[in-house]
Amino acid sequence: MSSMDYNDFYVVRKVLSFRKCVIEGRDCLIVDVDQFLNGEKYGVDHDIVTFYLLDKWIPPSMLSLSKFPIRVHVLIKKNYREVYIESLSQLSNIAWATLYDNYSDAVQYK
Prior knowledge:
By secondary structure, this protein is mostly beta strands. The protein has one domain. Helix content is about 5%, strand content about 40%. It has one helix at about 105-110; strands at about 15-25, 25-35, 50-55, 70-75, 90-100. A five-stranded antiparallel beta sheet has the order 1-2-3-4-5, with no helix packed on it. The longest helix has 7 residues, at about 105-110. It is globular, with a radius of gyration of 13 Å. The mean pLDDT is about 90.
């Protein structure tokens, strides 16, 4: 995952694990990445390694993960004490990024 549009996501981050979910009828991936994002810039007192990804274009579902690259909105929790996210209003959109099939593709196309 990386972004040419946002300096904080210019570095290629490798997705270590992901979970699929639905929030307010929208397909979402919750991803854990290998390189943290400094949370201070976003009002968080710790480094951020978990992001919520929503497909930038609706409706095709990105959850099939069948066609890459996938353009995504990158979101983080507004309140990290909340365990369950049930509403998009609980998240802050911090960037657009591209999700690639694998790390080497992300490096190549960046």
